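Review box. Two proteins, two foldings.
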Amino acid sequence: MKYFCNPVNVNYRYQFNQDPRRGGALQICREAADPSMILFQGRYYIFASMTLGVWVSDDLVSWENRRLPDELPLYDYAPDVRVIGDWVYFCASNREHNCDRWRTKDVLNGPYEKIEGSFPYWDPNLFLDDDGRVYFYWGCSNATPIWGVELNPDTMQPLGEKTAVIDGHPYEIGYERVGEDNSTLPASEAEVEAKYQAFIKARGVPEAAIPADVKPMIRGMFSNRPFIEGAWMDKFEGRYYLQYAAPGTQYNTYSDGVYVSDSPLGPFTLAANNPYSYKPGGFLPGAGHGSTMQDKTGNWWHVSTMRISVNHDFERRVGLWPAGFDKDGELFCNQRYGDWPMAAEGDPWRDPEWMLLSVGKAATASSFLPGHEPDKATEENVQSWWRAASKGRDEWLCVNLGEVFDVHAVQVNFADDRIDVPCPGEIRPGSQARYIDEAEQLTQWKLEGSVDGENWFVIEDKSDARTDLSHDLVVREEGFNARYLRLSDMAVPFEQNPCVSGLRVFGLGSGERAAASVFTATRMGDLDMVVQIKEQGNALGYNILFGSSPEKLYHSSMVFAAGSHRVGALIKDREYFVRVDAFNENGITEGICVKL
């Protein structure tokens, strides 16, 4: 059996951003986002923003990075890739000029044939219908909708006028609200207008001089309205499933919703199961702006963007989850334990085979800097990390699981902490000026285990690795006994002090499972619910599951403490059912299901 663990284990390239929204100061972080995944000629390909290449796999587990030709718009966001016949079509986003397309019959070797574009767009998505007709969707704004239009399949030029297909409704759709945990409603029209007028007055620009298409964008800066973006279309049993992302990539609630229709250009109706891709909790949250496709055996998968957003709002990764359609034609995605190791095959609602052993466990280190203590590496929070006091290879980090466990997997997650190095290349100008690091960086380490803390054995030695895998996964299906896990002999890009956001250990305990949860769930207004969980002595965490029926608890929010938890993803006038499952090192205990 083959296993993987989110985020996808690939090399995430460094970006040297000169963001005008932050005064033009240089900001450095790793980034990949907005993935389009396709199956073409028996291989899987993921194209993601700001990677300079494509990730290729034969099994959805092991991925190889391959560079793409420079003639492609590799510095433009949200690459859209679709298979049409023997061709793969590629395009990406640019608001400043007409966007061209390219097509090829050989993704890795080319050549790529250029197709002239006729209009600018952002967050594109091309769709081939069963009858050979081609449709195009685009949009990324908190002021304008997602658009759709039919294209001429030979020229890729529009046939007719564009149609608005999806707009935001944050007063009725809870998961579209901005802020952490969907916490903020939009500003009133009067508030937005006042801030808009103050903005243009401060800059001494006559309103008449502002282009008509720019005014909504300026007002959007002050609206607290969600970004409605990232369209992706699938067709299943004659129905059209138009997916979209909201409310913003920097929030833990970045998610994908779905509308359905009997026609590719609508009208569209909000599906019963929404948001269908939603992961606000756990180690690495976020599950928005992605793509949905079938593998070689007909199983469905969803790949989308996960959020870090510490060094820059666009510090992001890519996640992959099993998806599918239920007997009623509802599109779903299983993210209940969405950043734990999972098998690459099996029932889409399979539980994890191995449990999280490291959360909240004691950690020690050779050294640390204040605010970055060793226990940050076991908090299950990608936004905090242990940082060594030096870059020396004698630095080490050790996790004490508290007792001997049967360990099967370890995920080693390195973080970046305010990197301060010169930009190694020329910053490309534009609204999001940047340079993408071309160098093949290296991330090296050694992982050891021990039963007693005195006698150590090597689990994995990558101290001479020629790879740059900042979220690397070690799997031992047969398992091994260990109480202590020690990470040492580390070297990371740009000679940083090693920073580890998660030394995450998975396996099985032999004790009792957590007691069944005791909880209450109360609806608060139209869009929120509060789940109050009573403390259970042997639980390490809880999964709050909810959905439209006891059989369709498709949404989940993982938490690591009892108490009061607000979930802000509800939809007005819809009925919900709630269940809280408890878990510890020994397994998962399902709770009772209640009507909200």
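Next protein.
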Amino acid sequence: MSEISKDPAPLLEVRDLKVSFRAGRNPPVPAVKGVSFAVPRNRTVALVGESGSGKSVTALAAMGLLPPESALIGAGGRILFDGADVLTLGARERRALCGKDIAMIFQEPMSSLNPVLTVGTQIAEVLARHLGMKGRAARERTLALLDEVGIPEPGRGIDAYPHQLSGGQQQRVMIAMAIACAPRLLIADEPTTALDVTVQKQIMALIARLQKAHGMAVLFITHDLALVSEIADDIIVMRDGEVREAGPARDVLSQPRDPYTRALLQCRPPLDARPLRLPVIAEVMAGKAPETAQRPARVMDGDIVLAAERVSKSFYVAEGWFKRREFRAVSDVSFTLARGATLGVVGESGCGKSTLGLTLLRLHQASGGRVLVDGRDVLALSAREFQPYRRRMQIVFQNPYASLNPRFTVAQILLEPMQLHGIGADDSERIRMAQALLDKVGLPRTALQRWPHEFSGGQRQRIAIARCLALRPEILICDESVSALDVSVQAQVLNLLLDLQQEYGLSYIFISHDLSVVRYMADQVMVMRQGEVVEQGGVDAVYGNPRHPYTQALLAAVPRGVPAGTRDFI
């Protein structure tokens, strides 16, 4: 049993839990291998680990949400809630327990909320099922819950559909549903992964406030050790289905005993430095000393490869039969990008940074301004005239799961752009080029015959980068290209991007809401808010002495991650 289970009667206790999954006719694949830990009453315990570590599977087992047709729970394992083994409960008893006494917040609210029901209806359904509350009483309770979680104007929000709310507001609705029945245990499974730093900080503060107000125990699941320092009393670190380390949060963060814990802490880009390379898990666990040399920022006064002048993009929303309202997503944005340098674009969701990237590539039609490449305004070119520039300007999208064609093998994914742009004499030469590209991004050549679903998220992002490199571009736009990755995989991809930039002289426009990642990658930084640039300058100047209050607020919201002295071991 872990060090944090000293409470003689913890609220949740997991004992020797083993979970395996059937994989066709193959032997079952173990996902959780004899995990034991406890969640004391009225405390917040963080369950930390990379994707595939078994942390979410453990939580789903406690909620009874594992698919019975494929999940196998090993004999002898127990999950005790207030002394009762939930694994032995019948379906009706489990439904009465989960949602009322145990509630869960899922990672992706848009896929967890029903898109055809208002948020008020969905919260009221929880109240009706578990408390028998209906009609006026249910509506009044729903309004109170929306107000408690910080939804603006609850009287209007109660009748809104999920798509009418921002990502942060959707997550607040999920929290309202979770606390509707005043649960004694709240399980939060990566509830802030896709959120901006400011919204993330608000959600973390909300969960902490609700935990104290309602006297709940909280099991907070995440891959980011830096984040949990702001909420957790205790930390459990998992890897490959096993607990590697457990203890009070300050001890785990300031004096980590397990090499894997130390590796997780070191992989995240620091906010106050720019090492030449980020450590990766394997290197740290092998005892390799971290990089101490620093990488200076480039000065953006060299050969200008791209210049944007007052670029704007508007969208129009119909209002009635004959009217439409203009929404200005990007407003008069200007900047220059030097050859071989990186411009970081930061801001909250909805600030226009991704729309700007798509507009530069003409994936959105600009509403105004110019984009100059070699002195030519590419926005004014015809489709045929712009075709050669498509080779020179490529984009790596945020979600590699959605940006790779699931019906294509990796070979088809890499060869298609070469064929369209006439690169290579024939398919035999293109195959050789594709093999060389896989070498560059650190994938085996045997990957050519495999399908996207056979790869992890980090590997898929490497395939997406290889696809871009197939066209030998000069400019690469990275649109939140590492935001969905674990910190260890993120470090590998960031190191890869820097290696490729140095080898090919690539220029990057690096779009992200993660200010630590932008600090590590960028030479210049452009801060956007509501479609406008509020601050722009060298990375050291902007991070060291931010002038605009919005930039200051963004930097203040970044989780520092570790108490004083934590990095003494590095």
